[in-house]
Amino acid sequence: MATRISIAARKGGVGKTTATIEIATNLKLIGKKVLVVDFDPQGDTTRSIAADDSASNIFQAMNAEVHPSECIQETEYFDLITSSKSLNKVSKLFTERDDVFLLDEVLKLVEENYDYIIIDNNPDVGDLFIMSMVAADYIIIPTLADRNSMSSVDETEEILQGLTSGRIPISHAKVFGYILSRKKRASMHTYALEQLEELSNEKEYKPFVKCVTDGVKIDEVKLMQKPISVVQKGSAQAREYYEIAQEIINRIEKEAV
Question: Residues 203-221, buried b or exposed e (16+ Cβ, 10 A)?
C-alpha cells in the first residue's frame, strides 16, 4: 500500500509544484514506484513536465467516468494523473457529505501498484484542499521566508487540526515536514527557520525542516518542462531535494519496522 503525501499550503507561489515534481522525481531515481496526482485546477504540475493534458484526468476518475487506472500516464520521471479545469466544479457537483472521501476512494483503486503517491494542491481552502488532506497520510508544507507565507503555515496546520480532531475525525494525516525556500534576505530566512524548528519541536511527531535554494536555475528549468533533478543533477537544488526524498524514505521505513 502506498504512502500518500499531500504538498499543501494556504498560499500560492511558495513552491508546492516544484516540491511535488522534485520530490517525486528523486523518489523514482532512488528506485521507488511513484504516482503524482495533479489536484490543482491550474494544472501546473501537468504543464511543468509536458504531460498530455488531453488524456483522462483526476476529475473524470472522481466523477466515475473512467477507472483511475485509465488516467495514469507513464512519464520519464514518474507516473501521473493529470489535472482538469473541471476540478473547479467540484464544490457544485459533489455536495454529499461523504464526497469529501472521493479522492481517497480513487487512490485506493490504484495505490497497490505504488510505494508513494504525491498530491499537488492549489492554495484555496475549498473542497479540493479538504479532499487532499482527507486522502493523505502526511502533509508537507512549503513556505517562503516572509510574514504572509509563514502565516499560511499556521493556517494550513489549523485546517488539518480541524479535520483530525473532534468527535468524528475525517483525516488521520499529520505534518511530515516543512520546506523553506532560501531567499537573499538572510535575516528573515534565519527567523523563519527558527520558527519552523520551534513548530517541529512542539509536536510529538517531529516534522523535518529542510531548506532549498530558490534561484535562477529553477526558473530556467521550468521553461524546459523537466525536473531540475534531471536537467541539473549536480545543482544545489537537486542535491537538496534528493536529501528530502531520502529523509522521507528513511522515516517511512523506520515506522514500518
Answer: eeeebbbbbbebeebbeeb
Is the entire prediction scored with pTM above 0.90? Answer: yes
Q: What is the pLDDT of residues 38-83, one digit of tens each?
A: 999 999 999 999 999 899 999 999 999 999 999 999 999 999 999 9
Strand pairing partners for 116?
A: 3, 34
Enter the C-alpha cell of residue 47: 504543464
- Report, in this order, helix, strand and coil percent for the chain, each rounded to 5: 50, 15, 35
Nearest CA-CA partner of 84 in 101, 65, 99:
65
Q: 142-168, pLDDT tens digit by residue?
A: 999 888 888 999 999 999 999 999 788
Which phi and psi (to 5°) does residue 25 adopt? -60, -45
pLDDT band of 253, cuts 50, 70, 90: confident
Query: How many C-beta atoms lie closer than 10 Å to residue 104's C-beta?
Result: 17
Q: What is the C-alpha separation between 13 and 57, in angstroms, rounded? A: 24
Q: Per residue in 122-157, is it b (16+ CB within 10 Å) or e — as a string?
A: bbeeebbbbbbbbbbbbbbbbbbbbeebbebbeebb
Question: Can you tell me the distance from the alpha carbon of 64 to that of 76, in angstroms, rounded to the nearest whole number?
Answer: 28
Q: At what angle do helices 147-164 and 186-202 cross, to 10 degrees?
A: 20
166 CB-near residues (< 8 Å, 6+ apart): none
